[in-house]
Design a protein that fits this description.
The protein has five helices and no strands. The chain is an all-alpha fold and 163 residues long. The N terminus is likely disordered.
């Protein structure tokens, strides 16, 4: 296999780390207005740990990229890293879409749409299994949370108007 020098994985790892930090900042500001302080108990420390670790991760990535550029380390298998980073990016985008849809069309519909999409993104070859799995898993989650534990799941603004 031919060895090459590349900064492609460096850029992808920086984009993923930055995207995660941006999502954490959005989530932190979204939940800071919760009335009950117990609801924010774990969120604040985890957020600040992420903020502190982000510059460390970026510094390490820059250091690794400099080593690669100066020829002290050769990168092999760049295509695999790119495919993995692409899957992580699609995963993050699909989770963001799922969380947005959760508020509008509710738990049941958005989860039935999300699970097969996620399985296909992660590489499931079957067309039928993800659909059957998502229906069964959504039904079991609904049964467990809504029926057995009496924890209401999001109905969705659009569905709520119809009901």
């Amino acid at each position: 296999m031919q060895k090459t020098f590349s900064n492609g994985p460096f850029i992808h790892r920086i984009i993923v780390a930055t995207s995660i930090l941006i999502l954490a900042v959005i989530y932190f500001f979204d939940v800071k207005d919760l009335k009950n302080p117990h609801d924010r108990l774990l969120i604040s420390p985890v957020f600040w740990i992420m903020v502190i670790l982000y510059p460390i991760i970026i510094w390490q990535e820059i250091r690794e990229a400099k080593k690669t550029i100066h020829g002290s380390e050769e990168v092999e298998g760049d295509g695999d890293s790119y495919r993995l980073t692409k899957k992580v990016g699609f995963f993050m985008i699909s989770v963001m879409i799922y969380l947005i849809l959760l508020n509008y069309i509710g738990f049941i519909i958005s989860t039935i749409l999300f699970l097969p999409a996620l399985m296909w993104i992660l590489g499931t070859k079957s067309r039928l299994f993800p659909i059957i799995f998502s229906i069964i898993a959504t039904g079991l989650l609904y049964l467990f949370f809504d029926i057995l534990l009496s924890i209401p799941l999001p109905i969705g603004i659009l569905i709520e108007g119809v009901l």
